[in-house]
Amino acid sequence: MATDEVKVIGAWASPFVMRPRIALNLKSVPYEFLQETFGAKSELLLKSNPVHKKIPVLLHADKPVCESNIIVEYVDETWSASGPSMLPSTPYDRAIARFWAAYIDEKWFPSLKSILKAEGEEEKKAVLAQVEEGNALLEKAFIDCSKGKPFFNGEHIGYLDIAFGCFLAWLRVTELAGGHKLIDEVKTPSLSKWAERFCNDPAVKPVMPETATLAEFAKKIFAKPTA
């Protein structure tokens, strides 16, 4: 398939944009990455996603597909013959993977972001406790879903691995800013090993932002306005 047939509208620092990029890499699908400027929205983005006006958007033969997890499923189904499936084989396991992906987006990641915004030690402690509680739940979810294999999806990176793994760069930045390890060998040993495997995978490594670069970017977007 020619590169110009598949395009991803996004931004390098967005964890949600990482999802379709990893999925396409896993399926060995060449694509063009159309970089959006932070703080602005291109005409192509507004035209391609007029409802939410958000990244990422996958353009396949000029047809837009929106919402990161939906795009991952679309990639998995469209290029089903290329590489292993990213969704589990049974309806129950697929439902469980979607449940935890929704939990990560709706509960876990908002708590993680709140650490960078927290003011005062008490607020920071409360938010850290929320994230650590979520990490404990995800540690158990990994053990249950992986069934002793390297990834949530088993032998290969899959839907839930992508849904959670896309946030690992931001998690590292948060650890750096807060001086507090959130995923480690003691509290979350399974997740700690999984995170290392995920980040070193050839489909992930090229799109995973460097911690130092992302930390500098985070300072800009979380900077408090001056009087």
Automatic annotation (TrEMBL):
Highest taxon of the lineage: Eukaryota
SUPFAM superfamilies tied to this protein: GST C-terminal domain-like, Thioredoxin-like
Compartments, as annotated in UniProt: Cytoplasm, Cytosol
Domain (GST C-terminal) ranges: 90-222
Enzyme class name: transferase
Record field: catalytic activity: RX + glutathione = an S-substituted glutathione + a halide anion + H(+)
Alphabetical list of PROSITE patterns matching this protein: GST_CTER, GST_NTER
Any one annotated GO CC term: cytoplasm
Primary location recorded for the protein, binned into one broad class: cytoplasm
MF term (GO), any: glutathione transferase activity
CDD domains: GST_C_Tau (cd03185), GST_N_Tau (cd03058)
InterPro entries: Glutathione-S-Trfase_C-like (IPR010987), Glutathione-S-Trfase_C_sf (IPR036282), Glutathione_S-Trfase (IPR040079), Glutathione_S-Trfase_N (IPR004045), GST_C (IPR004046), GST_C_Tau (IPR045074), Omega/Tau-like (IPR045073), Thioredoxin-like_sf (IPR036249)
Pfam family, one: GST_N
Keywords in alphabetical order: Cytoplasm, Detoxification, Transferase
Annotated EC: 2.5.1.18
BP terms from Gene Ontology: glutathione metabolic process; toxin catabolic process
Every GST N-terminal domain range: 4-83
Family as reported in the entry's similarity comment: Belongs to the GST superfamily. Tau family.
Protein known as: glutathione transferase
Source organism: Brassica napus (Rape)
Lineage summary: Eukaryota, Viridiplantae, Streptophyta, Embryophyta, Tracheophyta
Gene that this polypeptide is encoded by: BnaC05g07890D
